[in-house]
Amino acid sequence: MAILPVLTVLLRPFNIVIPYTRQFLIRLFLVAGLFAAMLTTRAKEHISIVLIQYAKNEKIKESLSCITGLLSSFIAIILFWNSVSFIKYSISGRGFANVPDWIFALAMPIAYGVIALRFAAYSMPRKTKHWQAILPVLAILLGTAAAFPAVAKIIWGFDPPGIFFHIVNWQYDIALIAKTPIILFFIVAALSGTSIFAAIGGIAMVMLQAAGGEPDAAPIQIYSALTDPDIIAIPLFTLTGFFLSESKAGERLVAAFRSFFSWIPGGMIIATVVICAFFTSFTGASGITILALGGILYTILSEKSGYPAKFSIGLLTSVGCIGLLFPPSLPIILLGTSTNSILYFMGETVKYSIIDFFLGGIIPGIILVIAMIIFGVIASVKVKIPVEPFKAKEAGAGNGCNAVAASVGIFAVLALQLFRRRY
After folding, report:
1. No. of H helices and E strands in the chain?
2. How far, in Å, are 63, 219, 296 from residue 421 at the CA level?
């Protein structure tokens, strides 16, 4: 996914065009994202709010873990049947190069089916009683029963036999009448450790069914979101963030900015804010910035510069979020595509592109950076943090200059591209 755009740019001066690059990348992201979800289930790394970790009773923890796993399996199997119905009736378009779109959309039922089976298998503790072994099977069967509107549509189309038609209508009526308690149940389940995607997916499907939507409604939204042309930027910027976090770029940036700012009162605060803002804009998550730079910055702030430990931790966890407002921020890309998709499906005119969202985040981001720097300088003067003399030799060292030049250059190119595209 990263090689194709690079090849396209390199071959452009020679008037060589790789056909269907954009169409292939968009659909490849759909497949890669869903298969990555399968791997995430295998690694048991789905995002969740694990409040059960505070429970002292191990049996309660084990029971809640089992229930939340089975519930995630229940939701995933509903998405599996809904995705099959979506492929059979709702997917449109011939794809590209005579390859139909349903070939790529097959990743949806495959991924949700595997996710459902893995959640069911992993939900049971190692020491399981004989009667408990039936629980994973029961979760799959109940999920299939809850997905009966999709199953009926797959088998009989839009006109199921009388008794089955009444069952489908009955399920829609139940969703309409009981949607509020069901939504509250999913919220409680999310707080108890159910995977966030399962809780949100369950709430979305209940609301769609209560509104009389077809079983394909949720997969249509998923397919549209994961094949949005703007979304393709996410894995490419994620790759950039991976290179930044795994290489020693962070350490070089820290060394360079420390040498440039350590002679100013609050200089290390300035360096920390600028470095974290730059790093987070590419990694797309403040957590990655903290993992990549938190250790070295904490050591410099607390042990070498003399800032209190709590102040250093608070600063690092705060400034990591500032970078999310600067391009090429992944959260802004998600915000823009989600907002435009909602406006489109509501029948409203989509007036703003991702470029506009990027431009809208720059000024608030700069204000936050300045505010954090001012706060840091005042705190440094108050605590009487000593300054270090400016060392021109260290500031002009190769690694330091390269790091700063690269940072300034990247932001300059991005700014020029943004304003050129906008105006």
Report:
1. 20, 0
2. 54, 33, 38
For residue 311, the one-letter residue type is F
Side chain identity at 151, as an amino acid letter? Answer: V
Q: Which two tokens stand for residue 96?
A: 């590209």
Asked if residue 232 lies in contact with residue 26, where contact means CB atoms within 8 angstroms, the answer is: yes
Contact 153, 193 (CB under 8 A): no
What is the spatial distance between Cα 113 and Cα 101, in angstroms, rounded to a whole number? 20
Residues 38, 111 within the same domain: yes
Q: Write the pLDDT tens digit of every residue in 167-213.
A: 888 999 999 899 999 999 999 999 888 999 999 999 999 998 898 88
273/29 Cα distance (integer angstroms): 33
Query: What's the token pair of residue 356?
Result: 């506009």
- How many whole angstroms separate alpha carbon 107 and alpha carbon 130? 34
The encoded tokens of residue 166 equal 């009444």
End-to-end CA distance of the chain: 29
User: 57 exposed, middle or buried (CB, 10 Å; 0-12, 13-18, 19+)?
Assistant: exposed
CA of residue 226 relative to chain centroid, distance: 12
User: Within 10 Å of residue 224's Cβ, how many Cβ atoms?
Assistant: 13
Let me know whether 220 and 237 are in one domain: no
Same domain, yes or no: 314 and 217? no
CA dist 92 and 16 (Å) reads: 31
- Model pTM score: 0.72
Q: Which domain holds residue 219?
A: 3-227
Q: Rounded to whole angstroms, how far apart are CA atoms 72 and 118?
A: 10
Shared-domain flag, residues 133 and 181: yes
User: φ, ψ for residue 260 (rounded to 5)?
Assistant: -80, -30
Instruction: Convert the pLDDT of each residue in 358-383 to its tens digit.
Output: 888 888 888 888 888 888 788 777 77
Residues 146 and 26 in one domain: yes
